[in-house]
Amino acid sequence: MASKEVRYDAYVQSCIDLFKRGKFDFIVEFDGKRHDKQDEALHILTDNIHTEILYGGAGGGAKSWTGCEWLTWSCLSYPLTKWFVGRNNIVDVRDSTFQTFRKVFLKYGLEENRDWFIRERRYILFSNGSRIDFLGLFFMPTDPEYKKLGSKEYTGGWIEEAGEVHFAAFDTLKSRVGRHRNDEYGLLSKLFITCNPQKNWLYDEFYAPSVNRTLKPNQAFIPALEEDNPFNEKGYRKALESISTKATRERLLLGIWDYDDNPNRLCSHEVIMYIFNNDFDEKSNIYYLTADVARFGSDRAIIVVWKGWQIVDFLIMNTSKTTDIQDAINHLRFKYRIIKDNCIADEDGVGGGVIDNCGIKGFKNGSSPFYGENYYNLQSQCGYKLAESINNYLVSFVCEISEKEKEILTGDLGELQTWKVDSDGKLRIKPKEEIKKSIGRSPDWRDVLLMRAYFDYAEDIPRGVTREN
User: CA 224, CA 46: separation in Å to the nearest integer?
Assistant: First the structure.
């Protein structure tokens, strides 16, 4: 046993020696295949030139694997150094990124041959004293400058899925790396960033300057496609090819940064994604219920329970009788003790019967807007109000929602767009009929969410005035 441990220690030490000399064959070679993009990234991550490195492109480009390889061998090579891996939500670091770390550890036998690391809920501690912290980088309106990161000092670090991370997090973390034993080991400050194409600060800071050849000398951009990675599972490319949404397909399959986007959108994709990770403290104790009613599968019926602007519960009914929808509304209303005046359902179509039988408010999309607002109709007025609330980080999910429903909801809110201004100059949103042409379905999530804005207007309206005449 002792000789086996000695041989294994010698193997790890030989890998460490190669890593410190900038030789990465032990990392990138597998069954005679060589991943050139990963090799390029590792050389840049260990050079004495670049401090900000973006590795971005299509899905399957080995971005996560590269980050885990780099941090693992950096920790093994330089005792007592301190690193981080951050994502918008720390749960994703623990449940997703750490699983890739484990695959890397298993590849080199780090778990089987020696207790090289201790994994806690917020870090990985190596036996030589090096450490990788897990960071949650979600944006909090109460801390817009990420002062919570201001006291941390790291040797280097990695922002994963950076398309979901606010620019201020990146801007702050740049000042937190290069501050822990870098001089002792002669290590340059390094901030590694991985992402899929995203039209936000990543586009402005890295992609556009790369195209225009104006990247700063300390910056590097490494584009990567699924086809660059020979280690992907055989079905992975087929899964990417099956994506039906044009913009998502261009981003994840083709790695296109200038994917089809619409300037008429009222909310950016980035800010829509914060709905699922928003951590703000909802001060309101008032509950509401909104319902988009459908019958026998023509559209889905969705019922949403709100606490202020937080979504605390929802129910989706794919094929339902109106009586089933009524029972569901009443069940949720009694469960959360919501008064009838704080419940509203789409009154168009079959919704009228549900409203009458439940004794709740009705929402008529084409009716006049509330007083004092220059909108085409009530639906447009509430659509703009919903967009305002999303852009101000008020809307959030505190209940569980599946990845499939996230994708549907994100697509629906992407269709929350300004539409043709009529001769009176009134604001309107893209009609449902036009949305169906774009995405091939009804925007049920958009409709049920915008109805929440009705109550903000109803509560703020001057007494005795209901609608514009």
Answer: 19
